[in-house]
């Protein structure tokens, strides 16, 4: 029995499943009280509701489209049993390729589902709201991963995505606030108070994009012109971002009075948003989330179906060959890194204009690095990276969801979840994923 | 941007490099870092000059000044004065106000105290640089070290059911606990890097966040001092504390009834200093790491793996072991930094403990070109900058974040030393470039 990656992942899955089942058993046992009138742990049920969003508008108490009552303990036992069996077969068969990542993602996804069931034992949860939150929180991670893909496919490692996002968030908000004041003065006009003030917000997004592009230009300049190690250069970007944004916030933003009070609005897409389950997940979001979905498929098209994409992949895989056929490698890299920075700028705008309105120090909280992990998880493909982002954001969404219930796992452990999942995914997937061959290497003629 | 065609001089290999002995070797080594610092500080001064808070300047008034630009130029002398006072504030915060000699020992001691964790954490990062790794996790390793040491220093007697343990047992145990906890936090990413190829930059950053959450959990839960209003652990036992060097006797009512040790007791307020034996430990570690790197086979292995992993593998060196070992040593040093903060300076662990030390230590290791001896001046410079920043903020209202900007610029100029060479027209010396194992996978 040689210890391999597949076996390691299988062991980890089995371990997680066993720990989970014992934890649930223990915690439900503690929940049995006189008041709950439940005799044994098998008596708990978790209800998953799919609300009828169309009827909810008229009557908030409208009955749900469907309400599935799952016996908590039995469902979790089945899930854990399946995971243990699959992990066992992984250990026995030791497949060369292909099964590790699916098994790991199913361990994580089913584990999250079990934790959700465990948290809502004897209670009910709104499924469409949970899933729509997964998509919403996945937005910055997915956009960041796209930024990473554009850079790495052209052969430039970009560890500075976090910093680019943070600066873009800061200056995107500043641009929106300042332009609102410039246009409207001290107070919004009566017509704008109730509606949405689009102009400053659009200026804000553009400001974020330009900021991201500028930070990326610095990264490109350092790593291409001065041949600085790209990891160091990215770290410079990250540190600089902390300094610049902190300085800007304390010296200007805190003192600046802006009439703008709200960020980007919710934009339900008419009748589509009323489809049960699918509506809230896909068609009832804020603008940048829609943009993210467009960008994922757009980049997929551009990368694999256009001349630009072919050249981009060429300079990342074999710059010498690309040079031979007359592509100016370094100029192309400059251009692509700046494009990547602009994409990261959109993610930054999400933080300060959509996710919440305003800017806080360190508000990106490591999402830039998580998006790099999502990029690796998706093997440098936009669609795969989108899937990875949803995996990571579901950790976040779960963490926020269970806070609403009296859940007896300490909140700190739930907040750790996205980071722990990132670690597990990185350790499990990387050996299987082959980065663009020239990624991180300086090209010199 | 289109300068790629002009290949810089150092990329073309000279035909036969003549080994020349510079007259002042350390100066030619140090000139670029020093100029990098100078340039970064000058840029910082320009930032101060432009962004002075309005309450320090005559307010902009349309009737007095024609336009905003007129106002900017008419306040130039005022701006210059504030900028200068920012930097004199920086200096007096770090080295004392030289017109009042009584402030000097306190300020210098504060600078040294501030530098202690920087020396240790800078060493930690330098070791990984040598191994071709990039440890951004000093922050998390430091937190874990602090947690480990506070667990032992504050709670160990309870485990044995005694009132207190003799210092000869308790102090080393606390130090060891911190070192081991930090080392563990370094070994995890090292192992992942060596075995699975997960890039240590991402894994260490993830571990930083995890360490923060663990600390938050412990300080709000198991380790919380029930009687305190702040979120903090109880005070550590006096026998587990690193002695102060010179200070007044502690007031037991402020420290949970513990009387912490010191080498020299004084009654003079000017000499009531915070400096503790941690600085001595830090200097010892500098010597130890220098010895390890330059006088032992292990150090040679680490450097070889960093320079050329393929050659190291060909020579039969154990790459996995070396990578894990280097990360472990690094984590141990960073853990020691946290430990010395807890048992030498704070005597307890608060929920708001460290901030940004991971990035600071990167800057220091780069400044020192990962040379263990050069870590000391780099860390002292950093400690002075951080200590002075507080005084600067009081003087001018300029945010402490200015220091972070200066820091990023310093790192940038050190990493891209060609910028500095180009500005000041200095020729490229031989060698001295840091190389990393690139790529994500193995």
TrEMBL record, chain A:
<feature type="transmembrane region" description="Helical">
    <location>
        <begin position="196"/>
        <end position="218"/>
    </location>
</feature>
<feature type="transmembrane region" description="Helical">
    <location>
        <begin position="337"/>
        <end position="353"/>
    </location>
</feature>
<feature type="transmembrane region" description="Helical">
    <location>
        <begin position="413"/>
        <end position="431"/>
    </location>
</feature>
<keyword id="KW-1133">Transmembrane helix</keyword>
<feature type="transmembrane region" description="Helical">
    <location>
        <begin position="230"/>
        <end position="248"/>
    </location>
</feature>
<keyword id="KW-1003">Cell membrane</keyword>
<dbReference type="Pfam" id="PF02653">
    <property type="entry name" value="BPD_transp_2"/>
</dbReference>
<protein>
    <recommendedName>
        <fullName>ABC transporter permease</fullName>
    </recommendedName>
</protein>
<feature type="transmembrane region" description="Helical">
    <location>
        <begin position="288"/>
        <end position="308"/>
    </location>
</feature>
<feature type="transmembrane region" description="Helical">
    <location>
        <begin position="70"/>
        <end position="92"/>
    </location>
</feature>
<feature type="transmembrane region" description="Helical">
    <location>
        <begin position="9"/>
        <end position="28"/>
    </location>
</feature>
<feature type="transmembrane region" description="Helical">
    <location>
        <begin position="133"/>
        <end position="151"/>
    </location>
</feature>
<keyword id="KW-0812">Transmembrane</keyword>
<feature type="transmembrane region" description="Helical">
    <location>
        <begin position="99"/>
        <end position="121"/>
    </location>
</feature>
<dbReference type="InterPro" id="IPR001851">
    <property type="entry name" value="ABC_transp_permease"/>
</dbReference>
<keyword id="KW-0472">Membrane</keyword>
<feature type="transmembrane region" description="Helical">
    <location>
        <begin position="163"/>
        <end position="184"/>
    </location>
</feature>
From TrEMBL, chain B:
<feature type="region of interest" description="Disordered">
    <location>
        <begin position="1"/>
        <end position="21"/>
    </location>
</feature>
<dbReference type="InterPro" id="IPR001851">
    <property type="entry name" value="ABC_transp_permease"/>
</dbReference>
<feature type="transmembrane region" description="Helical">
    <location>
        <begin position="200"/>
        <end position="219"/>
    </location>
</feature>
<keyword id="KW-0472">Membrane</keyword>
<feature type="transmembrane region" description="Helical">
    <location>
        <begin position="143"/>
        <end position="161"/>
    </location>
</feature>
<protein>
    <recommendedName>
        <fullName>ABC transporter permease</fullName>
    </recommendedName>
</protein>
<keyword id="KW-0812">Transmembrane</keyword>
<keyword id="KW-1133">Transmembrane helix</keyword>
<keyword id="KW-1003">Cell membrane</keyword>
<dbReference type="Pfam" id="PF02653">
    <property type="entry name" value="BPD_transp_2"/>
</dbReference>
<feature type="transmembrane region" description="Helical">
    <location>
        <begin position="167"/>
        <end position="188"/>
    </location>
</feature>
<feature type="transmembrane region" description="Helical">
    <location>
        <begin position="314"/>
        <end position="337"/>
    </location>
</feature>
<feature type="transmembrane region" description="Helical">
    <location>
        <begin position="273"/>
        <end position="293"/>
    </location>
</feature>
<feature type="transmembrane region" description="Helical">
    <location>
        <begin position="30"/>
        <end position="52"/>
    </location>
</feature>
<feature type="transmembrane region" description="Helical">
    <location>
        <begin position="400"/>
        <end position="424"/>
    </location>
</feature>
């Amino acid at each position: 029995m040689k210890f391999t990656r597949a076996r390691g992942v299988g062991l980890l899955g089995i371990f997680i499943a066993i720990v989970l089942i014992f934890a649930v058993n223990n915690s439900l046992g503690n929940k049995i009280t006189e008041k709950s009138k439940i005799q044994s742990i098998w008596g708990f049920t978790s209800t998953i509701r799919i609300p009828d969003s169309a009827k909810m508008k008229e009557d908030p108490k409208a009955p749900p489209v469907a309400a599935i009552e799952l016996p908590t303990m039995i469902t979790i036992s089945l899930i854990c049993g399946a995971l243990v069996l699959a992990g066992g077969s992984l250990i026995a068969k030791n497949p060369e390729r292909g099964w590790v990542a699916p098994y790991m993602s199913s361990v994580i996804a089913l584990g999250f589902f079990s934790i959700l069931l465990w948290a809502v034992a004897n209670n009910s949860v709104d499924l469409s709201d949970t899933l729509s939150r997964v998509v919403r929180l996945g937005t910055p991670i997915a956009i960041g991963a796209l930024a990473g893909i554009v850079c790495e496919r052209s052969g430039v490692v970009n560890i500075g995505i976090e910093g680019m996002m943070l600066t873009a968030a800061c200056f995107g908000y500043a641009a929106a606030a300042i332009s609102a004041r410039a246009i409207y003065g001290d107070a919004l006009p009566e017509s704008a108070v109730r509606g949405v003030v689009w102009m400053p917000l659009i200026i804000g997004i553009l400001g974020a994009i330009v900021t991201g592009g500028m930070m990326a230009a610095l990264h490109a300049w350092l790593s291409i012109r001065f041949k600085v190690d790209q990891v160091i250069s990215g770290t410079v970007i990250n540190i600089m971002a902390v300094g610049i944004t902190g300085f800007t916030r304390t010296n200007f933003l805190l003192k600046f009075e802006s009439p703008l009070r709200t960020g980007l609005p919710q934009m339900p897409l008419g009748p589509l948003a009323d489809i049960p389950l699918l509506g809230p997940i896909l068609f009832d979001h804020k603008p940048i989330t829609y943009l993210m979905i467009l960008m994922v498929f757009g980049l997929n098209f551009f990368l694999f179906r256009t001349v630009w994409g072919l050249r981009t992949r060429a300079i990342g895989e074999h710059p010498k060959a690309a040079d031979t056929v007359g592509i100016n490698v370094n100029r192309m890299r400059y251009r692509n890194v700046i494009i990547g920075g602009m994409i990261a700028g959109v993610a930054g705008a999400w933080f300060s204009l959509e996710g919440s309105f305003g800017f806080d120090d360190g508000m990106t909280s490591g999402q830039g690095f998580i998006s790099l992990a999502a990029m690796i998880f998706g093997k440098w493909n936009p669609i795969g990276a989108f899937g990875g982002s949803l995996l990571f954001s579901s950790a976040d969404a779960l963490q926020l969801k269970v806070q609403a219930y009296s859940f007896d796992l300490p909140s700190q452990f739930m907040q750790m979840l996205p980071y722990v999942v990132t670690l597990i995914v990185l350790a499990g997937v990387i050996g299987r994923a082959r980065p663009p061959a020239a990624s991180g290497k300086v090209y010199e003629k | 941007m289109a300068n790629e065609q002009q290949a810089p001089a150092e990329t073309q290999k000279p035909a036969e490099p003549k080994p020349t002995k510079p007259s002042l070797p350390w100066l030619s080594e140090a000139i670029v870092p020093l100029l990098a610092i100078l340039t970064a500080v000058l840029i910082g001064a320009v930032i101060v000059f432009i962004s002075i808070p309005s309450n320090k300047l005559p307010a902009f008034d349309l009737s007095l000044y024609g336009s905003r630009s007129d106002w900017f130029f008419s306040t130039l002398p005022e701006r210059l004065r504030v900028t200068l006072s920012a930097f004199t504030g920086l200096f007096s915060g770090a080295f004392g106000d030289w017109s009042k000699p009584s402030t000097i020992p306190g300020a210098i001691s504060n600078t040294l105290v501030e530098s202690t964790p920087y020396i240790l954490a800078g060493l930690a990062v330098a070791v990984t640089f040598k191994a071709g790794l990039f440890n951004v996790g000093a922050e998390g390793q430091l937190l874990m070290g602090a947690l480990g040491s506070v667990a032992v220093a504050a709670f160990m007697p309870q485990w044995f059911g005694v009132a207190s343990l003799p210092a000869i047992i308790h102090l080393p145990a606390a130090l060891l606990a911190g070192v081991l906890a930090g080392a563990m936090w370094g070994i995890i990413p090292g192992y992942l890097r060596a075995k699975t190829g997960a890039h240590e930059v991402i894994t260490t950053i993830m571990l930083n966040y995890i360490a923060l959450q663990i600390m938050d959990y412990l300080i709000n839960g198991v380790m919380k001092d029930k009687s305190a209003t702040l979120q903090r652990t109880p005070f550590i036992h006096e026998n587990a504390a690193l002695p102060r060097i010179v200070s007044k006797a502690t007031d037991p009512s402020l420290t949970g009834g513990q009387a912490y040790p010191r080498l020299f007791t004084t009654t003079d307020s000017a000499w009531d200093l915070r400096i503790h034996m941690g600085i001595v430990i830090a200097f010892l570690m500098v010597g130890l790491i220098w010895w390890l790197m330059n006088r032992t086979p292990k150090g040679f292995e680490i450097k070889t793996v960093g320079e050329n992993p393929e050659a190291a593998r060909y020579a039969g060196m154990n790459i996995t072991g070396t990578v894990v070992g280097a990360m472990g040593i690094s984590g141990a040093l960073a853990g020691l930094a946290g430990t010395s903060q807890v048992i030498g300076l704070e005597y307890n662990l608060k929920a708001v403990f460290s901030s940004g030390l991971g990035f600071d230590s990167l800057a220091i290791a780069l400044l020192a070109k990962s040379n263990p001896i050069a870590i000391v001046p780099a860390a002292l410079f950093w400690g002075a900058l951080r200590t002075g920043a507080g005084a600067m903020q009081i003087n001018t209202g300029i945010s402490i974040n200015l220091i972070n900007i200066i820091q990023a610029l310093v790192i940038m100029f050190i990493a891209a030393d060609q910028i500095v060479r180009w500005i000041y027209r200095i020729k490229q010396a031989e060698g001295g470039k840091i190389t990393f194992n690139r790529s994500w996978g193995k």
